[in-house]
Amino acid sequence: MRRSSEQTKAVILAAARERFAESGFEGATIRGIAADANIDPSMVMRYFGNKNQLFAAAAEFDLKFPDFSDADIDQLGSRMVAHFLERWEGDEALIVLLRSSTTNAEAAQRMREIFVAQLLPAIAAVTPADAPRRAGLVGTQILGLALCRYVLKLSPVVAMSREDVVAALGPTIQRYLTDPEITA
């Protein structure tokens, strides 16, 4: 059965996400990804050009922020942590990107782009005073949580329920979002 070009691209991307998640950017190879997708390596190159372009496509990630502007401002930190947990657990691409960003400059740049393009506007919409600083601080906690829970898999953090994580991190994120002393 022949696949359409869109189906082939989807199979390649799925294999790439798994391979990048497992091996990181440096350890993943076009040949390995092609083998995982059960296709010739030339097909990977045909659709994606090179490993960097394949990685960029595999690491495409939408944080899918809900409109927080109507949220109770006192619950914003908890809602944001809950949302991030759902996104991290719902799409492997961000974990792939996080793992790879520790060793690859292009992956690190992609991570920064996602957070600047998506997190900063979401925070600016609800707490515009010094939104870049607030977004940076929120990023430290969210990325730290993701690194410890989904990449390093620190057992105490992995063992926590979503509710426990929200209860523990929500107040910190809340402070970063609304504390007037955070502004410069």
Outline:
With 184 residues, the chain is an all-alpha fold.
Q: What is the level 1 CATH name of the largest domain?
A: Mainly Alpha
CATH architecture assignment of the largest domain: Orthogonal Bundle
Which fold does the CATH topology of the largest domain refer to?
Tetracycline Repressor, domain 2
How many domains in all?
2
The number of distinct helices, counting runs of at least 4 residues, comes to: 10
- Oligomer kind: single chain
**Main beta-sheet strand count, sense and barrel state:** none
How would the global form be characterised?
elongated
**Whole-angstrom Rg:** 18 Å
Euclidean distance between termini CA atoms: 61 Å
Structural class: mainly alpha
Order of helices and strands: HHHHHHHHHH
Question: Considering DSSP H and I runs of 4 or more, what fraction of the residues is helical?
Answer: over 70%
